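note to self — DONT lose this again. spent like an hour looking for the file last time. sequence + predicted structure for the chain T wanted, 103 res
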Amino acid sequence: MKRRLIVALGAGATDQQHTAFTSYLKLTFPNAGWWHRLPNTWLLIDLTGSMTAVAIRDAVLTIFPNVHCLVLEFRQDGTSTWAGFGPSAGILDMFGWINEQWS
């Protein structure tokens, strides 16, 4: 099942980390495609359906430690999910609006 994902990173990512993430994508998902024309943003497409928001989030946490992230996953069957890392309470809450409004 085809999946499309959006990866958005907060500030603080280095060029070396961007290169490492691109290498991860090439090695782990050799048949996937991606667009990376905006800093800290990737649009990913996986025709095999093996890429998930949780797997990409976990890779981002390894490659970009302490950088906030949001990964949105859109499946061919019309369902979607997301995974992220960052503040989840108080005024800096990154995910409250997504939980309340996005689904």
